[in-house]
Specification:
The protein has 480 residues and is of the alpha/beta class. The chain has three domains: 134 residues, Orthogonal Bundle (Fumarate Reductase Iron-sulfur Protein, Chain B, domain 2), CATH 1.10.1060.10; 170 residues, FAD/NAD(P)-binding domain; 148 residues, FAD/NAD(P)-binding domain. The protein contains 19 helices and 15 strands. β1, α9 and β2 form a beta-alpha-beta unit. α15 runs parallel beside α16. The chain is globular, with a radius of gyration of 23 Å. It starts with 21 loop residues before the first helix and ends with a helix. GO terms for molecular function: 4 iron, 4 sulfur cluster binding; metal ion binding; oxidoreductase activity. InterPro entries: DPD_II, FAD/NAD-bd_sf, FAD/NAD-binding_dom, GltD-like, Helical_ferredxn.
Length: 480
């Protein structure tokens, strides 16, 4: 019986794929986890309880059919499992690698609540899609009949790529414009290889190129063309730029050499992994080799920075965060990985100044304590009097999150409406901006968020753009 493969969570313990030893993985940028062998993947999928209300699916932004493809995996029907996983996500193997499953699907697994340890959903998702690529089950994009209408997508990150794939399947001509020389956005240049190896992203991009999607790289809207000029080329536009403006620190000495932005640092490292020439890395400006590094921040970007610094051969790496471990926004799994690799966390601490004049030599910091809850419900950090201390630092990396750039000015489109946070204002039902026929999706609308939400937004906005273009084509036909 099919059910014989399932409900094994009592007799079978939770087992993630083995991680490489910390000392070894800290020497390279390969992903840290090994892949499941087929029997192990099937066995772990068989721990699923097949509960009546699958909270894992409910708490997945894509509402993936998780219990169903777990069952198929447990039964050895791996191709069917992949096809079902792929039905709701354009990038399942990427989500399997970088989603914070501990906060989403696995964190809401029913057997996790029962004390037996969640099903290893992300690792199984990664396994079945990698297996599909290995076996040739990943089919080309099924391009629909040509509609004679074109779409311009600004931004080749997860939201833009996801929307582009769906729109191409519907038969639209799709052009993607991106400021970088490679597509992928933060998947390519922001996330380090030890979490997401770059060939994983590049094969997705290649699949879209093979489907006839045209990529215009090193294309900066506002410089190569204004938004209005792009609107003249296409029937509709999607803005999916993400948010790239780094949040700043107001402290004396913040302008000193050696105090750098997280994204500049991560981009330089990722470019080196591609074999690019990166002068700012080679001259040491964006290279942690031999340096005492302090990273300020507690999100996933901060975790990426501290773990990258370890791999670059830093003399020491400390992470300065103003709240405690329980209240940090980054993944607890990432914190554990970082600690294993030699990162020291300095909790309840915040920088007050950066010493050294022209070149940073240290961070003056103060201890913090948690006060009353703020508007978000989290206890707000406040200065703990008398808790000043100093850390030596040759390199300070600011990883405090990202905000929206001034797109109306950059794009030469003052009619583009924005919120008080600078994100694009869209209609809640149609996802259209204040400019007719111009849509927006991903972090440029919701603010800095998760890759999985960007993929979901790309899927949703493609449906809205399709409806709008069908109506436009009909009205033009009637007018003719």
């Amino acid at each position: 019986m099919a059910d014989d493969a399932m409900l094994k969570f009592v007799a079978r313990g939770q087992q993630y794929p083995d991680k490489r030893e910390a000392e070894l993985r800290a020497e390279d940028f390969r992903e840290i986890a090994e892949r499941y062998a087929v029997p192990d993947a099937e066995a772990q999928a068989g721990r699923c309880s097949q509960c009546g209300v699958p909270y894992c699916s409910v708490h997945c932004p894509l509402h993936n059919h998780i219990p169903d493809w777990l069952r198929l995996t447990a039964e050895g029907r791996l191709r069917e499992a992949y096809e079902l996983s792929n039905a709701t996500s354009t990038m399942p193997e990427i989500c399997g690698r970088i989603c914070p499953q501990d906060r989403l699907c696995e964190g809401n697994c029913v057997i996790e609540f029962s004390g037996h340890g969640a099903v290893t959903i992300g690792s199984v998702e990664k396994f079945i899609t990698d297996k599909a690529w290995d076996e040739g089950w990943v089919e080309p994009v099924r391009v629909g009949p040509a509609r004679g209408q074109s779409v311009g997508v600004i931004g080749a990150g997860p939201a833009g790529l996801s929307a582009a794939e769906y729109l191409r399947e519907m038969g639209y001509d799709v052009h993607i414009y991106d400021r970088h020389d490679r597509a992928g956005g933060l998947l390519t240049y922001g996330i380090p290889g030890f979490k997401l190896e770059k060939h994983i992203v590049m094969r997705r991009v290649a699949r879209l190129e093979e489907a006839g999607i045209v990529f215009h790289t090193s294309f900066e809207v506002g410089r190569e063309a204004t938004l209005d000029e792009l609107r003249a080329r296409h029937d509709t536009i999607l803005i999916a730029t993400g948010v790239y403006k780094a949040r700043g620190i107001k402290a004396p000495g913040v302008g000193a050499s050696g105090v750098i932005e997280a994204l500049d640092y991560l981009t330089a490292s990722n470019r080196k992994s591609f074999g690019d020439t990166v002068p700012a890395f080679d001259d040491g400006s964006l290279n942690a080799d031999g340096k005492h590094v302090v990273v300020v921040g507690g999100g996933d970007t901060a975790m990426d920075c501290v773990r990258t610094a370890i791999r670059q051969g830093a003399a020491s790496v400390k992470c300065l965060y103003r709240r405690d471990r329980a209240n940090m926004p980054g993944s607890q799994r990432e914190v554990a990985n970082a600690e294993e690799e030699g990162v020291e966390f300095v909790w309840l601490s915040a920088p007050e100044a950066f010493d050294g004049g022209d070149k940073v030599t240290g961070v003056r910091a103060t201890k913090m304590r948690l006060g009353a809850p703020d508007a978000s419900g989290r206890r707000a950090p406040e200065v703990d009097p008398g808790g000043a201390f100093q850390l030596p630092a040759d390199l300070v990396i600011k990883a405090l999150g990202f905000e929206a750039e001034d797109l109306p000015r950059l794009f030469g489109a003052e009619a583009l409406g924005v919120t008080r946070w600078g994100t694009l204002r869209t209609d809640g039902k149609s996802m259209m901006t204040s400019i007719e026929g111009v849509f927006a999706a991903g972090d440029i609308v919701r603010g800095a968020s998760l890759v999985v939400w960007a993929i979901r937004d790309g899927r949703d906005v493609a449906a809205h753009m399709h409806a709008w273009m069908k109506a436009k084509a009909l009205s033009e036909k009637v007018a003719a």
